[in-house]
Amino acid sequence: MILYNYICAFFLIVLGFYTIVTKYNLVKTVIGMSVMDYGVNLLIISVGYTPGGTAPVFTAGELTQASYFVDPIPQALTLTSIVIGACVTAMSMSLVMRLHESYGTLDTREIRRLRG
Amino acid sequence: MINLNNMVDYHHFPIYSIMVLFLGAFLIAATGGKESKNPRNPAGFRAWIALIATGLSLFFLGSLVKPVMMDGEVIAYWMGSRGIAGGYAIGIALEVDALSLFFALLISTAVFVSAIYSIRYMVHDDCVPQYYVLYCLLAGGVLGLVLSGDIFNMFVMVEILTFAAVALTAFRTKVYGALEAAFKYLVVGCMGSTAILTGVIMLYAQYHTLNLAQLASLIPGSMNNATKLAFAFLYIGFSTKAFIVPFHPLAADAHGAAPASISVLISGVLTKSGIYGIIRLTYFLFQTMNLGASQFMLVFIGSVSMFVCVTMALAQHDFKRLLAYHSISQIGYVLAAVGLSTSLGVSAGLYHAMNHTLFKGLLFLAAGAVLHETGTTDLGKLGGLSKKMPHTTVLFLIGAFSISGVPPFNGFASKWMIYQAAYQKAVESNNIGFLAVTIVALVTSTLTLASFVKVSQSVFFGQLPKEYENVKEVPFGMRLAMGILAVLCILTGIFPNTVTGILTQPAAKAVADVGEYITAMGFKSNLPVPELNFAQVGVWEPINWLLILCCALLALTVVAVAGKYDRVSESESENEAVETKYQLFYGGEKNVYSQVGGGDLFWGFKHNWRHYFSFMHDLHSGVVNDYALWAVVALALAIVYMMIVF
Description:
The complex is a heterodimer of chains A (about 120) and B (about 650). Chain A is an all-alpha fold and about 120 residues long. In chain A, about 65% of the residues lie in helices and about 0% in strands. Chain A starts with a helix and ends in a 13-residue tail after the last helix. Chain B is globular, with a radius of gyration of 24 Å. Chain B has two domains: about 5-540 and about 620-645, no CATH class; about 540-610. Residues about 565-575 and about 590-600 of chain B have low confidence and may be disordered. A two-stranded antiparallel sheet of chain B has the order 1-4. In chain B, strands 2-3 form a two-stranded antiparallel sheet. At the A-B interface, helix 1, helix 2 and helix 3 of A face helix 7, helix 8, helix 11 and helix 26 of B.
């Protein structure tokens, strides 16, 4: 069961790489970056999963040795990662807008004033 | 209850030094983006906030020199006093050993000097208050990265600094190619960050901790395939931050487009954070540096970066873009020296990293001064500025001499140490390959000098174009910033032994003594305390001069043979003019009087190497897909390499 998560996570990461490398549209590049991010998020959340565990929310005194819950740290990490991913998307989309304004195109093959 | 005595305890200083920068960023942002009326300082008091924040940060780190560098203490600091429970780190830690402090000092010095420079440099721009917000964020991110003792925090700081750096690259949206450079940097930088995060998570899945010291105590000896995969991901992630080959085109684009004060940070600070990450990975986390394969990896990539980037620099005709390629070339020196895995090599590499920050900062600031006064950095359009900007010229020349390794400037001392370290390593390990590093380093140094002859000729000497008749010297604030760096360049060059004794040798010792890093954090380690030998054969020992001379001759021969090879085929034609035309350095049109512009000073040399140059030019196509492809290929190669050798 959890194995599929790992396979899917790496599939998404590779799909993101593939999109960035092969697509010549800036918006698709940004989508590729997002897909890559989702893959990593899925990987993180899968790492913390324990079959049958409850949510890691306890008040003082409730927590005993017998408590069985999923690892809370990866969930915190995923939140951080999601926030960062949103920032990346926002920033890259704003750059894409400005690029479209000044270059008049979204084709990466034409946005190459700096080369050599 | 706030205990004042407790607050001035130096154990809190690392977190203070990061906090003041983020606090500064917050304060500047909170006071709004309205610009002041003062034409000499459009950001008003917000510039002073940034200056004070960076100055305080430098002060806090400077006062750690005595306990950490001299007494050899490793500061382990748990945020909120939540430390270890049940043998596992549950808190977020800062860990400051001599290596961290060394990089932190470099960073905060560069940030402080560049902040001084920014005040007068940014007068032509709009949105200057926002510039300082991003500036403080960038500085805080890099400091947080090098002082952190927690690998996930390293990732977060990497993201913060990447954001700030991308935003600052695109800050001058009207500059030719700024947006484009920022976008490329963001795409590949984001791939790098994702690689780092993936690596971090794979380590967490294996070892259930994010603490660097604990990971360092757990990983070695229990390397499995997942760990190796994580290593490859982390390594490539930090490589994108250091801009080493194959990520160098991003650096060239970003440096060229960013304001000069930010180019200083990207070249002097961001690349250092990548190098720091690589050292932490290879020496501490995975402890693979005693293996030949790991040494080969760093030394090889370092040498390739050195050579490829210096030749790319020769072909540039934009001042800042040229400096950017040189910057990565010098990072290649650092990486190769660190990869030697001897105490002398590490010490030399760190010494060169420090010098790189100083002289590269100086050169970028000088380029910024030229841009500030003339409005261009195109080498073909500039010329003769030495009459109009004498101070800037002198300061630029100090930087140029330093980077070219001319004694007695600092570049000479550190490059000298790198040559020696590589040579010693070759003798010790009986491996001729390390000798090749010395030769590559020497050839690179020669080409660097050649390139700076070109720059100084075409910018500061030669004929002054008519439109720059009214150019004035830059304001005092900017000259002050350059002056500080120039003085540091000379001081670190004249007193190499003092500098290495106080700064780089403790850092190299920290690199070797991983056990201390682990136990200081409260984890068990059975790593032995290493014995270190910093002895070099003596800087002024004549036998070394002779050796270097031989190497230099060899380097010259390589260049000469490369030139002669083509000349022979050329001289088969009867025309004598053609024969002299393609000679190295002296070629040119004999009959026609022509003012040799700086861009053409080495055109004979370039002509002889035209196939290489045109190949490289085509390779750096400027299409973001290509650079992303390089990143993916590098990642794949790293994974394959690590799976095979470790």
